[in-house]
Amino acid sequence: MKLFTYNQQEVINKIWIAVLAAICCMLAYLMHTNAAEEQSNIYAGMARTLGGIPMNLIVLTPIYVITFSLELFLLKNKHAPIAAIICSVIIAGLLWFQYNHNDYRNYKNEQLLNTGVTWIAWVSLMLLRTYLLDKKSKTELITAIIVGSLLTLLPWRNTIIFMLSDLYQTKYLLWVNYVYNFAVYPVIYYLIVYVADNISSGDFIKVLKSKITVLDKRNYLFFTVGYYALILAGSVTMSYVCGARGLYFKYYLNNPFLILGALLAIGILVVVPYLLKNIVVARALTINRPEKILLILHFIPIVNIIIISIFFFSEDVNSRQEDNANLYIDQPMSNIRYVIVSLGGLVLFCTYIIAYSRGVYYNGAVSIAYLSFRMLMLIVVLRVKWPLYILCGLSILSTFIVSYHSIGGLIIMQAILSFHFMMEIFHPALYNEDAAIYHRDTAVIGEDLLAGID
């Protein structure tokens, strides 16, 4: 089963053009603001002008226009130049409007107005795309409106570096976060657009849910980068909504667009980590590298860049879903399960020693009780699944109680991702269509063996 149509695959293969254009635009902007010396100017610089033209209009318009127009030019749509001009006008108008409506003294009304205008702009562009690609059915028009709404409410994207910078209250390397935000935008844009285009197909949903899909390196990188960026964004959003000591919660309650954005973030955190895990497992099976340690390394910040690169450059080995299914089932249970439980015991032991040596009996007792319960759940996980849900819930709840700002997003992200890879390590299984494919293949092998005996 193929994930994307031929035309969609052509765009995905050339998406690096839009990514490179975004990086070049942001680096040029950063050099102009001398961001290497004045980190605080990175964000403030967008509110300035160059030759009387707002800086956000100069820098961001090419990024959005190239991202939107790339598909039309690659598919050699005869209206592509006109579409690029229309897109330029809409995006420039939107950015000009945002530049002139950023009065923080009337923050609530300005934000409502900005979000409403942004929604009109993106829905208009999605309807334009639908028309130019000759998609004029009622379902396709509704899909275009939904995609425009998702792009409007999309949570802001942050890097691990930004989260750590926020934790230590430093602006060092803030420019990396700014470049990343717009470099991943083309990937997220086409991920949302193409998933929306194909989601009405039952086969497409089955492939997304499958662990044994034969996954080539380009689609693997496309999904991994897009999914990971969405998870980061959703985690940071939720850390601000429910964490930060309630600092921003009232703003979300008073703004319907922020409420919808928070609901979108929740949806992302429920669905996307599961899909990311499936993509990683599918690629691991395709290249015949099903070791569980590689699955864990995919979800460790910074380290995952190395593992993703290894998976991307590895040659495909299996070419059939049946081969992937057999490889998955034939893998013995990983001993890394016991390593994880042992590490939990080590953390508990160290906490006990520290609490006892400092004489912090009350706080130490609470910590020890909490970690002892988690240790008990880890041991029980060796037999059943349900403690994983408790462990994940405890991690997220404790983050909302004690964390502050975006570092809470990192903890939420790791808690949710750890839930999925621990489920894969402690209780691996094939479900639904994957299991059916495996059983059909083993039945055919059995029939062949019987025929050979006869």
3D architecture notes:
Helix content is 76%, strand content 1%. It folds into two domains: 1-200, no CATH class; 202-331 and 384-454, no CATH class. Strand 1 and strand 2 form a beta hairpin. The protein has helices spanning 6-13, 16-33, 41-44, 55-74, 80-100, 107-132, 138-153, 160-167, 174-183, 185-198, 202-209, 217-242, 249-253, 256-286, 292-297, 303-313, 321-330, 336-358, 361-381, 387-402, 407-426, 432-453; strands at 49-50, 53-54. A two-stranded antiparallel ribbon has the order 1-2. The protein is mostly helical and 454 residues long.
Strand content: under 5%
**End-to-end gap:** 35 Å
Helix residue percentage: over 70%
Mean pLDDT: 80
Query: What's the count of strands?
Result: 2
Tell me the domain tally.
Answer: 2
Please work out how many helical segments DSSP would assign.
Answer: 22
Calculate Rg over CA atoms. Answer: 24 Å
Segments where pLDDT lies below 50 for 5+ residues? 35-39, 446-454
> Going across the major beta sheet, what is the strand order?
1-2
Class of secondary structure makeup: mainly alpha
Described by strand count, sense and barrel closure, the largest sheet is:
2 strands, antiparallel
Shape: globular
- Helix and strand sequence: HHHEEHHHHHHHHHHHHHHHHHHH
